[in-house]
TrEMBL record, chains A, B:
PANTHER family in alphabetical order: PHOSPHOKETOLASE-RELATED
Xylulose 5-phosphate/Fructose 6-phosphate phosphoketolase C-terminal domain residues: 605-806
Metal-binding keyword on record: no
Sequence ranges assigned to domain Xylulose 5-phosphate/Fructose 6-phosphate phosphoketolase N-terminal in this UniProt record: 27-387
Gene Ontology molecular function: aldehyde-lyase activity
Cofactor annotation: thiamine diphosphate
InterPro entries xrefs: Phosphoketolase, THDP-binding, Transketo_C/PFOR_II, Xul5P/Fru6P_PKetolase, Xul5P/Fru6P_PKetolase_C, Xul5P/Fru6P_PKetolase_CS, Xul5P/Fru6P_PKetolase_N, Xul5P/Fru6P_PKetolase_ThDP_BS
Example GO biological process: carbohydrate metabolic process
HAMAP family recorded: Phosphoketolase
Protein name stated in the entry: D-xylulose 5-phosphate/D-fructose 6-phosphate phosphoketolase
Family of this protein: Belongs to the XFP family.
Amino acid sequence: MSAPQPTSESISSFGVARSTVQGEPLSKEELRLTDAYMRASLYLCLGMLYMRKNPLLREPLRVEHLKARLLGHWGSDAGQLFTYIHTNRLIKKYDLDALFVSGPGHGAPSVLSQAYLEGTYSEVYPDITQDVAGLQRFFKQFSFPGGIGSHATPETPGSLHEGGELGYSISHAFGAVFDNPNLITICMVGDGEAETGPLATSWHSTKFLNPITDGAVIPVLHLNGYKINNPTVLARVSHDELQRLFEGYGWTPYFVEGSDLPSMHQAMAATMEHCILEIRKYQQQARSSGKAFRPRWPMIVLRSPKGWTAPRKVDGHYLEGFWRAHQIPLADVATNPEHLVLLENWMKSYKPDELFDTSGKLIPELLDLPPKGVHRMSANPVSNGGLVRKPLHLPDFREYGIKVTSAGRDDAFSMNNMANWMRDVIAKNPNNFRLFGPDETESNKLGEIYKAGKKVWMGDYFEEDADGGNLAFAGRVMEILSEHTCEGWLEGYVLSGRHGLLNSYEPFIHIIDSMVNQHCKWIEKCLDVEWRTKVSSLNILLTATVWRQDHNGFTHQDPGFLDVVANKSPDVVRIYLPPDGNCLLSVMDHCLKSVNYVNVIVADKQNHLQFMDMEDAVAHCTKGVGIWDWASNDADGEPDVVMASCGDVSTAEALAATALLREYLPDVKVRFVNVVDIFKLISSGDHPHGMTDKEYTAIFTDDKPIIFNFHSYPWLIHRMTYKRPGNLNLHVRGYKEKGNIDTPLELAIRNQTDRFSLAMDAIDRMPTLHNKGSATREHLLNMQIKAQNEAFEHGIDPEWVRNWKWPFGKTVTGTVAGAVSGLLGPRGQKEFATSE
Amino acid sequence: MSAPQPTSESISSFGVARSTVQGEPLSKEELRLTDAYMRASLYLCLGMLYMRKNPLLREPLRVEHLKARLLGHWGSDAGQLFTYIHTNRLIKKYDLDALFVSGPGHGAPSVLSQAYLEGTYSEVYPDITQDVAGLQRFFKQFSFPGGIGSHATPETPGSLHEGGELGYSISHAFGAVFDNPNLITICMVGDGEAETGPLATSWHSTKFLNPITDGAVIPVLHLNGYKINNPTVLARVSHDELQRLFEGYGWTPYFVEGSDLPSMHQAMAATMEHCILEIRKYQQQARSSGKAFRPRWPMIVLRSPKGWTAPRKVDGHYLEGFWRAHQIPLADVATNPEHLVLLENWMKSYKPDELFDTSGKLIPELLDLPPKGVHRMSANPVSNGGLVRKPLHLPDFREYGIKVTSAGRDDAFSMNNMANWMRDVIAKNPNNFRLFGPDETESNKLGEIYKAGKKVWMGDYFEEDADGGNLAFAGRVMEILSEHTCEGWLEGYVLSGRHGLLNSYEPFIHIIDSMVNQHCKWIEKCLDVEWRTKVSSLNILLTATVWRQDHNGFTHQDPGFLDVVANKSPDVVRIYLPPDGNCLLSVMDHCLKSVNYVNVIVADKQNHLQFMDMEDAVAHCTKGVGIWDWASNDADGEPDVVMASCGDVSTAEALAATALLREYLPDVKVRFVNVVDIFKLISSGDHPHGMTDKEYTAIFTDDKPIIFNFHSYPWLIHRMTYKRPGNLNLHVRGYKEKGNIDTPLELAIRNQTDRFSLAMDAIDRMPTLHNKGSATREHLLNMQIKAQNEAFEHGIDPEWVRNWKWPFGKTVTGTVAGAVSGLLGPRGQKEFATSE
């Protein structure tokens, strides 16, 4: 096989600018100032990478001026700040409201340099002054212990996108402009990042952007050609392919390619201005006519060398325009005297003495160059969303309650019911709340909300759409079959000061594990940054849950997202498993009011037994865990066994098991406990919701067997309770990767979470029973087998299992069958009074 | 705002075929047979969805013939089997080796119908016979308890792609054709699936496909227009955009659009033949010249109605060509007599009596139509990878060992060293082993392997590539900045009978949590399918681990992938944390030899202390957990404290803590334990690697404090050990979402996993010490503060911390400082003898 040769038709990032849009809009003076401002910016970037002392090189550079450990990335800095600076010109010229999203990894020096030059940095960090001492601190803190990171972290003014994990820049940028009609987000997309799946599909976001009610995004695909150690895919295809790709995605790509600074400045200035004017034209056209349409929005492909303005070669090896410029260009500068000189000459080539005055402050003509006040992209309030966040107008959820006259006997579709409330949430908040989902909103029984806000669709319309399509140009529901895009939009929407909810099937929420991790880290870190204001919580509603995925089988069974979330900081994560419809309402209301959390709510979407009227539900959810007296018969407070549950299906099965025990073994005293908020189970020292051991023991006992039916993998409960008193009495049943094509009962039996297994389990754990439980155990086993056989024959669980209802009434000591009120007894009231 | 109207330029999926490739290659007779075969296939699909009895409708359809619960999906069935059948013609005509990947969700009836008609189904499931009784069983089992699912699950002959979670069809298809030069994979891509991020970037796979050494993939984008309840993005853009998109991705798209069956058959036959011939032409051109290049490979855009061949409207609502055809088209058939008649007429419109003989067997002329033997796509051995898998030729890893003369005093780059062995693995297995990674292979210190196999790159080449680019047309390393694509390729490669390894940064492996979950479920389920043979394990090497992500900060710190993996079935998951270089070699060798697992190996890539010579390392890894006598001084077997560790950095810190204890409190007896295989910690009943309580107690004691320094979140250890004797004595330190820009020591201190915190922790836990430890504790605290202050000043940990070495020799009772051999003492030998 022949060896690879350079491809003749390859497009170099070097040379005089080539661009789609022609023109030289910058006057000589503007060009001079732009060039100087860019040199100042580049100098700051190198300063951050290398310098601990002697920030303006007013002494000859010595090794002791350098940081002992050189960290940070040079590769994308020049191209990013180049774009930033050219945006500044247009902000001033057209009075734009603009935001900058820095997508390429580790490109923070570019945006940090701008925040410093614009003065924002000194405003939020008064010790980082605009003088030599401030510059020294500004340089030293970068990628330095106790300092700031090499991404656009929460400490970075103007940032709502960190970019530690790659792929979400465009979806964040769109999230920020939805319902922000005057905002334009300039979104730098790294060509490495562009290879990720999430980024690759997020280009389709324009099919969901309304030119009347939303703002605009200008993606700048930064083709700097290289990742850590590889070329990028998009930099190594033909110009024609690249153009077609973005036209195919629905954009109008404008190319700016080259390395020659003066001509690149002119090309970028002309191109960006063209894009701004095109956006304004489309917006004007739609807004004046009231006719929304999908423009082929402008975007920019900026092909500039990796590590632009670095030496092209060092020691015979390519540096600028190659992956060697990715991180620290001269990593051995401390031990290689020639490289030390090279670095000094390189930094001085930006002529810092011309750019900063003797005090170390930027010279006045450059200080004048960027926009001022909130027009600075580093100071746009949208990037610090709490500044512009308005609390939701929430209808009183109590008015949407399900009427429950008999606990465990009435049934209802909890999710459909909650959708009534959500519909009115949307109606009352038409501009700052959106619902996101990967094509599952209707399936998840939330279709009622379309009455208040349909699904945004800017693609073509077909005749059948009128037949219940629920599509609209301006809607409140955002659906694309990409969990990544939905989550990214929601993150951008929330971080820019609005509110939202993602609804998704439980099994596939793992697709965005990593995104949620990163969002948790962002809001956790924001707590440490004094000038950061709190944003709305990011709410995730999981349904199509594991215990109703019997028919879809093994691939659709994974309740493990909770394990991922539970590993995050207790400052920011909350998990709720409401057992019924009124609890779901109470929990949802709480989540939509909260700030700075990731709230995960797990609730099934099918018909379910209801347990609590609204008042009881509110009290129960407020406590987060409680004894259900109406289901218990340990009136003396000395149970033989504690039956506990967490999750709606799990609760119904645990109750059915409790009923079996009480029916067949009436002398056995059963306490029934339900958990809504799983962090109640952790020690109070480990999570703000955690119970003390005393509180825990008062509910679960420290000496009685506890049969805990859990929605998710059982080990999550064990890891939360491993040091609780009586830990060895806790027997958790949950999902254990045992699935097939099943009925609900059979799936539960496989995992020993069905009523029969639970009841037998309880019998086995009660030493006081001795052999008295044997006959009952045998009977339960027979019932289980009978139910299984019927299910296998008919393909559906027997009616006596499916439509089981709680057979006891309110009386907590008796075993009288019948449908009476399921309200809490006196002890229940006492529980409420002692709750937090 | 104006209401949406149908868009005039919209492209309907209805009408006479429109296609890029013209021609009518089918004779009248071929057309007649193709049509009949398709009708038989469609009939089977409906049968699977609805019928429990009366499979060929030889009695009038009654409700009791139907399944009680109607499940399964009709939407994509027709388009998929249409494609399958047209592939069959070309397999026969051109003697193709072809595989079918069914991407659209829940489209199993299409491929199941083909496997049945081809006879494969009856071969692997002899009870599913080719007669009325067999048909009845075939229908009933579908989406029925105890039966098979509605995806192309492992029970489906010919499938290596389940499609439960969407987005991986193309990457799986490419994985299967790498190093399979004669294989052509027909990959149906759902237009819903096409919206996912992973799918959107996987189109770029052609930039990594070599026309000489690899086979080819024909993606068939199935534009059936709708998802569950929404139009699809790609079906609602202009024809021009669609064409440009795929040309931009580097493909040559051929369109086949319409609903009229005869003309659609001709169009598809002509188009598929054109694609096959084009592929052959490109392959021929490259193979005869020896010059690899990147062809603009052919693909097909098949626009046909959702639910094609169903009634267009039912009760005034659109069905065919709308999302209502997604799942069960007539869901109320059991309660709506009119719909029952409608269903009967619809099924009979396929004329089953013309297609199946009186016994229920397909008529001979149709039986003759598909290919035979392994040419049937349902019987391609590649889809049952173990059939074609060849074990690797592995060089003896012992010969690549790191020379360790003094345990804890010698240091080495474990990963670089392992790369020497990996290089030779690649050299010895040039056609069935590949290394995958998202642009991190060099960064992960595996660059040595390029000497045996470079990075595959079929994009353009630039002059600087010659300067150490390590790119080649035919290589062994696959790098694209998409964890999804890397993982998908690897899964496809492994499932089709080959071997591979994914290397990735630890923090971002969460990106593919869900993919790994799905792969675990696939191989777990395969264990239940008798005819499925075992495939190579899927190996994931995680590096750039949390404890060395101090400088990149919080976003780069997440060791939680292990929690996700540990939730999967114990039959298929294995996790190893080798403490040093020789253990890493031993573990890697074990993993590459194993089958049917997902092996996760966590190892840092920087310079590390080495602890074991090769023989000791092999023994230690074989045991999975062991006491390190050379680090312990509890010669009498009665320690005061057990210091335990799991993970390389964690082990070094725990050893340093042990040394501090032994130095400052020489009377304290410390036992040092190291865990390589974390599943050793689980009870033997819960995982095949688990220890019995007796084995566990022999190592950890049941009454002594255990300070366990863990690599990952501490709760993973707790959830594994919660019911072990002495559980409350186990104090695990690990990562707890406390990060910043740090030095390694400072990051550890934040999480209390540093040597000083661990030693202080141990002192606090030893009741026998009383106040005797106070002075030492104070001294340790002073040392910790001193180290921190030095680090904050210089930006780097003090040399005495960074370059710490184990100060004791081999003698297990003494405290003599000095560098002597670190081999295991006599008790170590005994441990080996009693290990499994």
